[in-house]
Amino acid sequence: MNSADFPELSSALTAVRQAAAVCRSVQASMDPAALEKKDKSPVTVADFAAQALICRQLQFDFPEDRVIGEEGANDLRTAEGATFLKQIHAECEAVGVACSKDEVCAWIDRGNLQEYRPRFWTLDPIDGTKGFLRKDQYAISLALIVDGKIVLGILGCPNLPVNSAEPDGSRGVLAWAMAGAGSWMVPLDDSGTSPVKLHTTGTAETADARFCESVESGHSSHDWSGQIASSLGISRDPFRIDSQCKYLAVARGDADIYLRLPTRKGYQEKIWDHAGGVILVEEAGGCVTDIHGVPAEFTHGRTLAANEGMVVTNGQFHTRVVDAVGRHAPTA
Ligand code: AMP
Ligand code: MG
Predict the structure, then answer these.
(1) β-bridge partners, 184
(2) Residue 290 annotated to the active site
């Protein structure tokens, strides 16, 4: 597989690498005292700077394209936002992008598309902000959607061990998938090595499975997943990890199942929390639907309005897992 055949891939990989560099630099300089005070400003700065840099690259290479992202620049243009804007601008310049503050705001606003288009990108510049603040796992997620189908997905995971068997080894993974061309990964810091093709596990019995879920019980119900695990005979502890690193965990075989179970009726999942990860798992041989077995629909603008929660498996026992999710659904 060759990125020269698909210029979107090389452009997006460059953009995600640059955003990862900013995230790492902000995280490295984070003051532990600020964390204790639950100060979220470091993640705000990194989040906006990453969105600015990715939208800048996409604007340069694909000027017609717009991006459905989480952030807009309106607040940065206010008096209260000025300090943030100054820091965001400084982070962009620190990775070699000479620019004005107005340009930074304009790039961020390119990522503020609200409605569906036949061709658009979706971006989560820092997925897993709580993991970022804990100096744990987070992901930069970017995907290209054409006619409602994800054609390209990229996850940059700056803190993820390159080899899951060596949790204390080198960290930083860049993974991508293109429709019909498989899922791949390289170490984030090394653009020279040959990409490794990703495959989901061959685990055939749910009793042997390991499942992953959010660290935050407010994002996915731990009570419900516990009941599902019991009914599927799963005895291994859940693998709790922030962000779309969960999709990568299933795609590369660190886990067999990822459950995202609504904590309340009416929550609509955001497309940027899923698109990059969904194609990564599907192209690695896995299966992704919502909790009702319905495929994710990326045609409703910013949210997965036609779906509820998400069930991700290695592809071996998807229906059994969806059935168990339904059997244990809370009655309320
Ligand atoms: P995770 O790291 O898997 O816990 O997911 C982080 C994402 O959860 C964030 O990007 C939010 O968009 C999303 N999120 C926020 N509130 C909720 C909620 N109530 N249910 C599901 N996801 C949520
Ligand atoms: Mg997110």
Answers:
(1) 176, 197
(2) no
Select from 219, 225, 303 the residue to mutate for testing ligand 1; criterion: most ligand atoms less than 8 Å from CB.
219
In testing the pocket of ligand 1, which one of 157, 273, 278, 290 has its CB within 8 Å of the most ligand atoms?
Answer: 273
Q: What is the largest CA-CA distance in the chain?
A: 58
The C-alpha atoms of residue 148 and residue 235 are separated, in whole angstroms, by 38
> 179 with 150: CB under 8 angstroms?
yes
Q: Torsions phi, psi of 282, nearest 5?
A: -60, -45
What is residue 66's DSSP assignment? -
Q: Each residue's pLDDT tens digit in the chain (332 positions)?
A: 445 579 999 999 999 999 999 999 999 988 777 666 677 888 889 999 999 999 999 999 999 999 999 888 999 999 989 999 999 999 999 999 999 999 999 999 999 999 999 999 999 999 999 999 989 999 999 999 999 999 999 999 999 999 999 999 999 999 999 999 999 999 999 878 899 999 999 999 999 999 999 999 999 999 999 999 999 999 999 999 999 999 999 999 999 999 999 999 999 999 999 999 999 999 999 999 999 999 999 999 999 999 999 999 999 999 999 999 999 999 86
The answer to whether residue 168 is catalytic is no
Q: Which amino acid residue places its CA nearest to atom 20 of ligand 1? A: 219
Q: Where are the beta strands (DSSP E) in 147-193?
A: 149-161, 171-178, 183-187
Q: Where are the beta strands (DSSP E) in the chain?
A: 67-69, 119-127, 139-146, 149-161, 171-178, 183-187, 196-197, 211-213, 239-240, 257-260, 287-289, 310-313
User: Minimum-distance ligand to the CA of 270?
Assistant: 1
CA quadruple 305, 308, 309, 313: dihedral sign: negative
Report the 10 Å Cβ neighbour count for 129: 20
pTM of the complete model: 0.97
